[in-house]
Amino acid sequence: MRRYTMLLLTAFLLFVLVVAGSAYLSDSGHLKEDAAMQTLTVYTTLPAEHADQIGKAYAKKRHVRLEFVPLSAEELVARAPKDDRAALVLADEETLMRLSAAGAFTPYVSEVSDAVPEEFKQSSGTWTGVWYDPVVFAVNRDYLRTLREVPDTWSALARASGVRIGMTDFMAADASAHLLYSLIAEFGDAEAYDILRGIHPNVVQYTKYLSNPVRQAGMGEADIAIAVESEALRYVSDGYPLRIIYPADGTAYTLTGAGILVQSSEADRQAAGRLLDWLLSDEAQAALAAQGFHFLTTNPATLAAQSFAGKNLVLFQQLPQFTDQEKHAFLDRWVKYIRFGNS
Description:
48% of the residues lie in helices and 18% in strands. The chain has 15 helices and 11 strands. The radius of gyration is 25 Å and the shape is globular.
């Protein structure tokens, strides 16, 4: 009996050694693979969850580790022009324009980036837009069936009666404030405030988050949500009864783009160019969409662009290039005379 016990113990110890050895060899292989993987540093203003998903997908597909460094627009503008740590900036359009004016970028043009329309990139090739997110009307389908005429313009929405509207407070989110500035840039301040003054009495609630107006419309708590399309598409994909309408007189949008930093090494610049091209691919779109991040690609050659249903999407042509003081004055005027005013 003791002999059988010793044999079993010996067999068990051999099994443990084999498993441990296999685990060691596997870990060693992963360590070697990780050590061999190139690392590319990217400065970004993107939310952490967006950057994380891009980093995971790129590492899996291209075996390059992306080290995202989240920075505010002001931090980026102060640091990037004289910093050689990062190779690429992935940020909003306004920040990219400021960095380009400061000479932070080196021009980059490829067959992929050349396909991007001029409205989504700097003409000199210093930065290229990779995706954008327009503001839309997300309309509850039950409400839609009661209408003879759908309010499909900003002025029509302002004139609509008996409609419950959900929208995000301009003071609560940059993307929402961007709508205010864009309306003023496109229509002029007088017409823009007239539109907002017409919409205001029908607003059910000025929410704090971009997703809440769409949720309200999807749950029947509002009839129409003024929201970014990425949030509307997320709720549509989850089965909420919503129809997306693109304002026929144009709409605001936020553009995200990338630029290669001039201070980076030649090897990093080449790697950054490959990353920029990948950001314009269907792979990047699929990686974001898999986690519920639905943006519109700027690359018309992709399947994502060719299958996009909103062919009637009209974008505002005037960029809201205002100073911080002007933006503050616009917000203050909206709060004083519309949000909490009577005129």
